Amino acid sequence: MTKLIYTISSLAAASLLHFAFSTPATNLRKSQHQQDLPLLVSEPDTLQEYTADATRDLVSNLPGLNFEPTFKQFSGYIAVSPTRNIHYWYIESSNNPSTDPVVFWTNGGPGCSGLLGLGTEFGPFLFEKDGVLSQNPNTWNQVANILYVEQPAGVGFSYFTDDSDRNVGDDRAAVDNYQLIKQFFKRFPERKTNPFYIASESFGGHYIPHLAKEILDQNTDNSINFRGFMIGNPYVDPFSNDATMIQTYYMHGLIALPLFQQWEIHCTDPTNYPEEKCTIVIDTMLKDAGNGINPYALDFPTCTEPDNNYPPAGEEAGAVLEVSGYVSATSRRRTLATSSAQSIKLMKHSSAMNPPFLPQEDVYHPCAETHLYNYLNRDDVKDALHVQKTKDWSMCTDDIEYSTDDSDTPQMYLYEELIERARVEGSNLKMMIFSGDDDSSEYRKLCIDHCGVFLVGEKEGSECNRKVITPRLYRLSDVGAQRCHSSIFRY
C-alpha cells in the first residue's frame, strides 16, 4: 500500500492512458473548523441513459460535501457468486464520461480496501477531520471514469455469506474480479466501448497480472475493451521486497553503514540465508531507525492529531503489510509507526510544513486515513453509499484468509507471459509499472528498454548516472538504451 502523492500519481496515470489533463477545477477547500455545513445534492442532468440497477446505486446526498460535484457517482454491491458480494464506488469523469477510459482500481494488502485510493490518494474528495469533503484539484476523475472496488469479498463493506469464502488466493481473486467487471458493464452498458484499464499498487503486483491474464483468456468476444494495466510499487517477490525495504531505509539515512554492510554481506542471498543471524541484524537496524516513521512515506510527516484513533490498537497489524515467506521484516514495519511522546512533540513542530521536495500547490495530508475511517463508519454515510449498516468499515481486514502459498510465490513469470502477449502483432496492450522512491515497501528495481516495454529482472543502481540535488534527492539519467526506474545508491 504505497503513499502516492496526488500530483505524481495523476501524472503516472496520464502517462499510461495518454490522457490530456483539463484545467483543474478551482479548489473550494474550506476551513477544517467550519461547522454546520449545508448538505449539497449532486443530481444528474438525466438518468434516462442508466439502467434501473445503476439508478438505484446513484449517490445523490453524500454528507459533508462543500462543493457542487460536476460528475455522477454510484455506490452499491455487485454479486460475483451466490455467496460473495463486492462493494464498488464508481465515480464518473468530470471531463467526458462517454469517451474517457474506465479504470478499475483496487488497493493491496492482501485484504485492503480500494476506498483507500479514493480517500487518501487520488479520488475527488479530501476527507477532513470534521467530516468535510473538499475538492481534490488533482483527482484522476478529471480524465477517467474510476471504478473503486473493495475486494476480495470480506474487505471493507464487501461481504460473504458462506464462511468458506474467507479462504481466497490469487486465482479466485482474479475470477471474482473478472466477474465483477462483466457485471459492472451490464449495469453500465453505456461504458462498454470505453477503453478499459486495471490498476493497483502494493499487493496489486499479484492482483493485476492475474486479472489481466484472466481477461485476456476469457474475453474472447472482446466485449471488454481491455487496453492495459498500471501498478505502483508492486509486491512481486517476497525476498526482494524485504531486501529492498532495508536498502531504502539505508538510502534515507535511517540505518548505520556498519549494520547495513553486515546485512548486505550475510542476508541478501535467498539461497544462503542464516535466519537467526539475519533476524538479529534486521531487528537492530529497525530499532535504530526509531519510531514515528511512516514506512510507506519515509520523508513525510505522520499523523499527530491528539484524537487519532485509527487503526484500532492491534486490530490490523497483520493485515496492513504484505506476507513475507523469508523474513519477518515486513511484520516489524508496523511498529515503526508508533511514536513516543517526545517524537510526537517534535513532529508537531516539524510536520506543519510539507517536505521540501513537494510542489508548493501539493499539500500532503498525513491524517487522511484517520479521517476516511471516521467518515465511512458514520450511519448517514453508509445510507448514502447503500451499504450494510451492520458492517464496520476498516482499511484492511482480518476477515479473509489469503493463501500464503500464493503470497510467497514470485510473480515474474506472469509478467514475462504478459509481456510476450503484448508483443503480439496488433496488440494494443499497454503496461506501466512504477515505484516511488519514498516508499520502503515493494521497492522494485525495474528498467524500461528503448521500446517502452518493461524488462524482467533487476538492474543495480550503480549503473545509473546520478546527480545529487540535495542529500536525499537524485536525478536519474539515461544509461545507454535503458532508463533506470528506481535504484539503490551505495556510498
CATH domain class name of the largest domain: Alpha Beta
What is the CATH-assigned architecture of the largest domain? 3-Layer(aba) Sandwich
Unreliable sequence segments: 1-44, 312-352, 443-491
| Strand fraction | 5-15%
How many helices in DSSP terms? 14
SS elements, strand count: 17
Gyration radius from CA atoms, angstroms = 22 Å
Query: How confident is the prediction overall: mean pLDDT?
Result: 75
In whole angstroms, the N-to-C terminal distance is 29 Å
Indicate the overall shape. Answer: globular
- The CATH superfamily of the largest domain is identified as Alpha/Beta hydrolase fold, catalytic domain
The helix content, as a percent range, equals 25-40%
Count up the domains.
3
Q: Can you tell me the CATH topology of the largest domain?
A: Rossmann fold
Q: Structural class per helix/strand content? A: alpha/beta
Major sheet characteristics: 8 strands, mixed
Could you characterize the architecture of this molecule?
This protein is α/β, with parallel strands linked by helices. The chain is built from 14 helices and 17 strands. Strands 1, 2, 3, 6, 7, 9, 10 and 12 form an 8-stranded mixed sheet that branches. Strands 13-17-16 form a 3-stranded antiparallel sheet, with no helix packed on it. Strand 1 and strand 2 form a beta hairpin. Helix 4 crosses helix 5 and helix 7 packs antiparallel against helix 8.
